[in-house]
Protein: GTP-binding protein
Amino acid sequence: MSELYMITGFLGAGKTTFLKQFIRLFPGKRIHVIVNEYGKEGIDGQLLKEVGSVLDEINNGSIFCSCRLDKFEEVLGKALKSQPDVILIEASGLSNPTNVKKIMAQEDKFPGLSYMGSICLVDAKRFEKVYRTATVIKKQISVSDIIILNKTDLASPEEISRVKELVKAHRPDIPIFETSFGRIGDGWLKEMKQPELVKEKPEIQTKDITLRSFVLTIRDTFTPYELQKFVEMFLDDTYRVKGFVRLQGETYLLDCVGNLFHLTPYQEEVHGINEIVVLAGNGLPAAKSVKEAIKWYPDKVIDFSMAKK
Structure:
């Protein structure tokens, strides 16, 4: 049997960092990783080699949405044919995984699969904001079997207490653990009860219409300092701002969560350069804020529009 664990969590909760730590809990095991995410920086290839892992990536939509479900089932089916000991799925931060128990119950499609449960990462600093404005975070928690409150080093005791209250009000029946930098404690998995599968046909799911996705295309004439000042003008009104940019001949990964700006040098070959994705939701005036910011740098922005569906 192949044991399968699913990792969920809203944009920027720290899923990939956690996954790198989680993989190490299975020394000597054959591991297959399936990552579903836009613009994934990628799990360290050397780490995958060290633990003997195989990696599949599914982009351009949630694996639980009707637009990508067939692809996910195809990838999972092929993974099972190699009979790995453990399969780890990192779901998109925008995913609605409420179908997961029905999908995993399809024994004809997934023979030899044992679904161990869902681990949901929660950003201790930003949770209250996304809980109010993003429907999918409630749905991710609803199917979770353990909650890991991440980034507690960035949150105050009052914020941590408030997040716990919100989560417990939603799911009082599952354990909550606190951590930073995606670290997982010894014995936490023992507190996770294996869920019962639901032998019903998975429901058709579509994208969450409360989510807004924009593409901001910039010129390479920005300096890193100018880009920071530009992006910081609208960060508070977004969930995430992410993309690869080339500024004055140098390539960087731009990855901003909440009001935290991050721009780091990037050496690998990339596609979609200088196309920045801006994600927001109901009640967040991201489009208006971006347009105001563009007025300060009109010659450095090529286009700003809704992302194509």
In short: The first helix runs from residue 15 to 23. The first strand starts at residue 2 and ends at 9.
